[in-house]
UniProtKB/TrEMBL annotation:
It comes from the Bacteria. This is HTH luxR-type domain-containing protein. InterPro entries: Sig_transdc_resp-reg_C-effctor, TrmB-like, Tscrpt_reg_LuxR_C, WH-like_DNA-bd_sf. It comes from Kitasatospora herbaricolor. Residues 244-301 form the HTH luxR-type domain.
Amino acid sequence: MSLQSLGLTYEQECVYRYLLRTRTTDPDTAEAELGLPGLRLVLEELRALGVVDAGLVPLPPAAAVDLLVRLRVERTSRELARLDSAFDVVRELAEEARQGRPVELVERIQDKAQVNHRIHTMLGRFETMNAKVLARTEASDESARRRQRQLAEGLVSRTLVSTAALDQSDQLAYARHWHALGDVHRVMSEPFGRMLIVDRRLAFVRLDPGRPESDTLQIAQPGIVAALVDLFEQLWVRATDLDRLDLSATEAAVLRTLSEHGKDESAARELNISLRKYRAHVAALMTRLGAATRFQAALRAKERGWL
């Protein structure tokens, strides 16, 4: 069976099979032996998929196939969710027939609870684009669990937050928590307006961006939504991926003690923090580095020039 049936291109499958056979760590050697121009780009694609790591070490076959199957299932789930949105058209048509007039395409909502209710009932579909000032906002445990479940089921979510907000340690930790779960975060220093776009067909924006207590507009007018999607994409391109941010002072200190101390207790004492808090910092760093063990975290930190 070809791995192309699981989503890899012909070139990606050739490179993956080659790395399994040879265990080479030299891209130039691989390119010469395979006779495949542009092999470095193919390697970047495999790294992005998670099939190959930064050291050109391929996933074992069973793990690679499992990963590709899960990715394929997620893509299928998203396509099914997109088809499910067709039933919204049925509801709109039925409402127009009932009212005898077109459904309102731009609606002003005064009640914040109603806004949250509408958003939560929609966030199980295909894609969300969220531009907000703070990473962490008030949300119930049930809302967080629902969000995590939706991400696991294939929801594509991108969140843009203000760089200034991440100067607060709780905001940064919260952003990294969701980033690791699949809600991809980017940050930017220039000002931007708050917006939430669902499935590229419905948007929520503040009536007065300068007043947090102002009413919310729910927009279904295709032309306006398309313009907001375009604006979000432009902001996204200019923003910085959360994983590319430099280490904070606390993270740098924890990483240093992690490499210098054999025991967590002595490392925590040096930093003058509790053992529990130290271990929480270590766990957050490992999540950021995508490491399963502390040894792997140290290797990846060295690759990034953090050690």
